[in-house]
Amino acid sequence: DADVTQTPRNRITKTGKRIMLECSQTKGHDRMYWYRQDPGLGLRLIYYSFDVKDINKGEISDGYSVSRQAQAKFSLSLESAIPNQTALYFCATSDPGQGATNEKLFFGSGTQLSVL
Amino acid sequence: RKEVEQDPGPFNVPEGATVAFNCTYSNSASQSFFWYRQDCRKEPKLLMSVYSSGNEDGRFTAQLNRASQYISLLIRDSKLSDSATYLCVVRRSENDMRFGAGTRLTVKP
Lengths: 116, 109
Known about the structure:
Chain A contains no helices and 11 strands. Chain A is mainly beta.
């Protein structure tokens, strides 16, 4: 079983629709992240959360919102989807216990979102 | 200018070849550095952290040059299974990791 699970794997939606991408993890990590990946641009951070009561904007948060329902769950919402939000979305977790040099990200399998 | 820059490739090499990738970063205060590997349309996975003194893990060697603000990844004796995109990742602060767009490697028989 995957340690970081994203649902759905693929989603096609129309402009203006509200959609939610879900992420759950069994790693017991406090830190969770949402990234998007676009060709030629690398991954960019949308939002992150260092614990259940902590929500922070990342590099590109406009048009997105998140909810940290529990330590294990972190969902990403697009309130009104637009075509330039078409991308591959990744959820990730990390554990800072090993120190910054060794803190690595564990990614889910990704959600390919297409907004028509 | 992108904060983390990589040659997108593709690098096409025969099995057994040695191949090297470089990555430059613009923020001199960056704290730590990593190489991740990403197979096509799949999630990135950590390949190795990059330490100041350089480090090796089997056929993979990573180097950091803080003065010139670049990191490198050397792969010796390339295998078909090394075909992937290699992502350079730079941590600027506790909550700020920046990803390069990746360098694509194809190892051919």
